[in-house]
Amino acid sequence: MAARIASLQTADGTWHASLLDPESFPVKETSGTGFYTYAILWGLNNGVLDRATYWPVVEKAWPALVGAVQPDGKLGYVQPVGAAPDKVDANSTETYGPGAFLLAGSELLKYVKR
């Protein structure tokens, strides 16, 4: 599953709302990006994933996440809760989005402290 997710990462370092059709919502999406980054880092930290293969994925994803933090500290580009993807922008946020960001950040901290 990690290999497939990594292969769907877009050039900007994020994963878009529609994984198989990123052009349908051609803007970054940070909640999924946060969760995928967290999962990949967890796999690296627990010896499940190969550093040479998956660290470059994190190196693209983390700056994209950090770049979505607005000047007021709000994480933007978060999908709303719902049954289908929706358009998002820098002001779009939901409570679970920063949670995914913090999970990824906590695993990144563990990784760099190893």
From TrEMBL:
The family database entries (Pfam families) matched by this protein are listed as: Glyco_hydro_88
Checking InterPro entries in the record gives: 6-hairpin_glycosidase_sf, 6hp_glycosidase-like_sf, Glyco_hydro_88, PolySaccharide_Degr_Enz
Cite a single GO BP annotation. carbohydrate metabolic process
Keywords from the named record: Hydrolase
- The answer to keyword Hydrolase applying to this record is yes
The terms under GO molecular function for this entry are: hydrolase activity
Q: What is this protein called?
A: Glycosyl hydrolase family 88
